[in-house]
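Problem 3 from the worked examples.
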Amino acid sequence: MRDQLRDILDVRTQRPQAIAEAAARRGRRAGLLGDDGQLFIIAADHPARGALRVAERPMAMADRAGLLERMSVALGRPGVDGVLAAADIIEDLLLLGLLDDKVVIGSMNRGGLAGTAFEIDDRFTGYDAATIARMNFDGGKMLFRIAPDDPATAQTMESCARAVSDLAMHGLIAMVEPFIAHRVDGRVRNDLSPEAVTRSIAVAAGLGTTSAYTWLKLPVVDDMEQVLAASTLPALLLGGEVTADTGAVFERWRKALRMPSVRGLVAGRTLLFPPDGDVAAAVDAAVSLVRG
């Protein structure tokens, strides 16, 4: 992968237009979902928000060659539908030829940098709907954190609503990841109680001029069946943090994937940085859950 990284640098230096050319000739699959009606996406948009930590390794995602190698393994496994990432990673994957017949979701708001005073101010510093459409991708993802004590939430909500509407005008999926969030000892923490997640779903589902193309990206929490009853929108499970007890994580995914409105999984660090280091085995185990 290090040699390929040099090739990518050569292209970026000498022929940057090759990125748009690669997007134009990329084979795009006929539909978003697989034949089984499910969707399995590998996420790697964390670095663009400065979130490089995996478990006890604060800079685990900072090695781009290593991350791309893990992404290459994951995207090559049978049953993996595509990728969710910011522009730089998607463009690297395009130049590596790894996105043919894959679903591509561009990450849109990465401005709420992890650990900063302005973290809740999730500015749209990444993809916009027009570029996602021009690049022939399948949709855009946005993080929507509702912090009751932070006025920056209002601007984030307005921006997310506009992005939902803009994506819908292009017939593209808007993947909304909502949370109720609070500062605890100076750090932003997501409230994963069933009540908080239910409230976040109710607000997220109403964003924009239409919900026709809106999907939700949700954590697996207690009382998941009741939580999902808050909306008729399709939902994808998010992977969450890496833990030593991957068996427990997978079991929670398995149970939630049985619910009718859950149409798949979007997971990143849990699968790209498993405790035993075996990316292929972790991805294959997740595929078996999604594909049933």
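Problem 4, a separate protein:
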Amino acid sequence: MTVVTSFRFRSLTVLLLASVGGLDAQRLVNPATFRTSAQMVLLPVTVTDRNGKAIEGLRAEDFSILDDQQPQQIVSFAGEDAACSVGVVLDISGSMRHILGPAKNIAHAFFGTANPEDEFLLLTVSSRPEALSGFTSDTTALEKIIEFTRPGGMTALVDTVYLGLSRMREARRPRRALLVVSDGVDNYSRYSGGELARVALEADTQIYTIILDNPAGGASAGTGLFRPSLAAKPMDQARERQGFDWLDKISERTGGLHFHVKNQDQAKEAVIKAGRALRNQYVLGYQPPDAEITGKWHRVRVKANLPKVNVYARNGYYSR
């Protein structure tokens, strides 16, 4: 999606300033080339096959949108590989001490999928959220920072994602996402998952999550496996399941993908799928019903008129 850099999405509902007229929706690949006096909802959409591979080459007529169960006309459409702004949230808390090495490898591999015009922000999860960089395209410098990080502290995962969404306001690219690499545990955040969910739904940022199995004693030598923590206490197991559920749900609601990985091969596959899905998206636009009602929650459903595909898009928005 090509957008002038001065134009920033503050939410899914965007105010554009001239008229759509009778232009063919299939040809509206640049939101700066048309304008309207009404509000516009823009939905980033990822379509994959059953194996998780991104499907390219689709057209506007391949999609349908329901807003509060009412069919909507797609009046803008974009589908191309565009530059991204991505905040990488890397969990380096004490619970990650046995799998921080594989987690770092995931971050390194993700940077390897980058386009030259992409920019990245690096945040780490510990007792306190910390942004280790501003937005930069220098992935080599970010990899060096990651290499010197050491595990320790409690896990304020929700707070760090919250900080990441806040920092995404500084992003210079119209396509924005967070990539969260963690074991899913949170035991030290001030914010709740519910509070974060509201902020995430109002932000124009997709959240991708890669969750690693939490081991009892590190990766098994020579096998590349993450050994599950079979000896974990029931309370710890319950906390991990809550983390998994929360991360899965926030990815689904924002239109991102989520992965659970048990070994190095699965981790590598997840990174490739996340990178391709992020950079090969479609952006569908339509004029929302009840645009004059502020603060109303709209449930959105996007369908692809194709067999055996998975569609990932945020499931709703709050009208402005």
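Solution to problem 4. Confidence is low (pLDDT under 50) at residues 1-37, 216-225, 227-235. Residues 40 and 287 are 5 Å apart (CA to CA).
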